[in-house]
Amino acid sequence: MTKEIKLLPFFRKEKKKSYFSEYFLSSINFNGMTEKLIKESPDMPLRVAKAITLATVYALHADLVIEECKKEEHFEDIIDHDVLYEENQ
Description:
The chain contains five helices and no strands. The mean pLDDT is 77. The longest helix has 28 residues, at 46-73. It has helices spanning 20-26, 30-40, 46-73, 75-78, 81-88. The protein is flat and about 70 Å long. It has one domain (20-88). The N and C termini lie far apart (76 Å). By secondary structure, the chain is an all-alpha fold.
């Protein structure tokens, strides 16, 4: 009794260009940033230092992603900056 092995076609996925925003997010040392904040302000609670670190990193990440989308998808044409500004006030 012999088994027949069928070869399935293997489709190579095109490599997508990696985004700098993803590299930035993966390269951040959250614990190191938190420790630096605590060294600068020893009275700061650990929970506050972690929150500030997360807020800072994710704000930068959001800015990078928005800039990348503007370049690729004509993001500027979709969003009216005046409307966003009014909604956030």
